[in-house]
Amino acid sequence: MGSGPREDFKNPVVNWIDERLPVFTLMQKEYGVFPTPKNFNYFWNFGAIAMVVLVTMIVTGIFLAMNYTAHEDMAFDSVERIMRDVNYGWLLRYIHMNGASMFFIAIYIHIYRGMYYGSYKKPRELLWILGVLILVLLMATAFMGYTLPWSQMSGWGATVITSLFSAIPLVGDSLLTWLWGGFSVDNPTLNRFYALHYLLPFVICAVVFLHIWALHVTGSNNPLGIEPKGPQDTLPFHPYYTMKDSFGICVFLVFFAFMVFFAPNYLNHADHYVPFDPLVTPQHIVPEWYFLPFYAILRAVTFDIGIPLTKIVFIEAKLGGVLAMFGSIALLGFMPWLDTSKVRSAKFRPMYKLALFGLVAAFVALGIAGAKPAEGLWLYVSQVSMAYYFAFFVVILPMLGKIEKTKPLPGSIHEAVTAKAK
Amino acid sequence: MKKQILTLAVVAVAGFGAFVAPVNAAGTAVELPKRDWSFDGALGTYDRNQLQRGFQVYKEVCAACHGLDRVFYRNLTALGYNEEQIKTIASEYSVVDGPDDEGEMFDRPARPSDRFVGPYPNIQAARSVNNGAYPPDLSLIAKSRAGGADYIAALLTGYEQAPADVEVMAGMHWNKYFNGHQIAMAAPLTDGQVSYADETPTTVDQMAQDVAAFLTWAAEPHMEVRKRMGVKVLIFLSIFAFIMYRVKRKIWRDVH
Amino acid sequence: MSETKATHSSSAHEPDSGSTRRDFLYLSAASMAAVGAGSVGWAFVDSMNPAQDTLAMASTEVDLAPIEIGQSITVMWRGKPVFIRHRTANEIETARTVDVSALRDPQQDSDRVKKDEWLILVGICTHLGCVPVGQKSGEPRGEYDGWFCPCHGSHYDSSGRIRKGPAPKNLAVPDYQFLTDTSVRIG
To answer: Would you list the domain boundaries of chain B?
Structure first.
């Protein structure tokens, strides 16, 4: 890393350090002169934005942890003390609370960008898989963080989601008891969730590091989906993309700040301000918005899977729902191989573009259905959407590679950019 | 391409909005009458006089059954009371302290640093004198009920004769806005129940409005600071974003 | 280094007036970033200061009536021990007759008490923060009939002044007020 031939720096202190530990050479190589396609659009800001949100979450989280008490009798009170008595505690807490939503907004757009422009394809498969891993870790972290205020939503959310594991045949119930450290979501559960909620962000950091490392091996994809052919196609990362990213980050922060200061509880649920009562479940138990599509998939499987017209059941509905939910995330990791098309960017893939819009529509529909009671029309909506979601990955993607007639690709990035400028 | 990106952005935002809207809509069955509050909007603030009136209603009516455990007497400075007044208010209540040197618990007058003294020593005691129903602590009621202040005011004014076809259970009362309509709390307010120092007429509607405002403050005491800071932060970030846009434009001018 | 790069990429095409404007632009961007980071940073730093509830608990009231002459009690104030000694006439006398100018931390006994018989001190050795002994009868009170710090052997007199050992200062006197003749509020 950064070893090998290096040039001297003018600043003697910098140079002294760099001779012994070439961090400045590394930064210079990876973030200074790093050749980056010159045709990025603003979708390419969201990686940097997600990074900023990650740092924000870690820093606010550490300061919140200084005042938080992970005990069933004190957790809720300690959070309220942060909100009322700790200097700027309300600010830290509202940033952290809304930051989770901001993280998912940034990440979902980042993932969508990757899908639209084919960033997951060869040679960036591992980069993409690391991204999916970050998503999974992020979900786990968010879920455990939501438990910490020990509200009605915390306790019951934790109960419902951990109970998913009881669907696993044979070992399900023992596994659940092990997860809980007791016979219900209780003090031991809170303590271990707190420990893990503090740990996982640093694991995310590590995977993000690998994600970026992998990115800097292959180089970035770009809206045209064709590889840069030479220096005329690229720009040094600094100052071009450092400044463009900074601008994008500022705009995103305007939105973030608006939520924190003027609508801090807009994305929240009222029951999140009621202390956890293990004897009373709230009437409307809904996960946070960013989990709704997956929650809808979980509930959409209302049927046993077996041999029709017989009583033979292979997978009960409960297990089926759990498998479908985890499967829907795991499928993302297989995208590089499910997609057989040679062309990356949806710009040149009219059918893929349509299919992808369909996927977005299905995802949104699942999200809406996830917030409604799982019955009547909304159940059908989620079942149809779920069917499309899976069909997109398993059927449509492999098929498109064979039947789609793609548009002609430009000769080079430079060519396309100059042609557009005229 | 610009147009396409715009469409995608719109789709993303609409999708996000679509996710969120139903979450918040899911709470209430009956539409709540929307009232005007001084704390509405991005620049809204609390009306100190209204908070004092609401505090009086809480103290003289609600406090008979409902605690306000997360609020301290010292917090009343935010309502415009001075230190001496707060000491006097606090000293009307007694708290159990101790153990003293002999190991006995003892009563002493409350101090500004004490929490609001609740009507019951514990939840079991609360249930036993209220037919098994637990009058919830009101510290966070404005945030823990969909509709917030509107809901509180609506609930307090929502007592009606039950429809003919509904049988109200023993010990329950029919309320238009309560989830399920049957509520253990009897209509708590009657016209002229308290007398305001500022001569505001004490109709049920007025008292409900005032106490709802007071409870909103109790749930979100830093709202005014938050909004004031928010305005500054948004102005700052907008200027910063604008400058960064100019910087970006400058740097990118020669590309293409 | 990165700065030079920024200048490099565009300066070739810019007239001089433009470069001042651009410098101003960069300067304002950098200063805004600094101001923003600083303000946010302050919120984080301040969150580690004592919270409102901690500050509200920062005073303690003590009833002095049960303390006999010659007795001492220790009360908790802001998480620290406060020594209250009901001094004997003899102790007061000894404290008063000391040659103040010879002390390491010169202070008159009368400047350290509000009522002669009541000595109120923060019971934290000014050396490295241990709690001196000498409160209970039978404990060593050091060579000057006050307190003795067991950690590094500092001796305090019956006015709580440092007389011998490594401590640099006298035992601190907290802010307090007599509410009545027999009750005092510390803090």
So the answer is: 38-71+115-221, 229-256
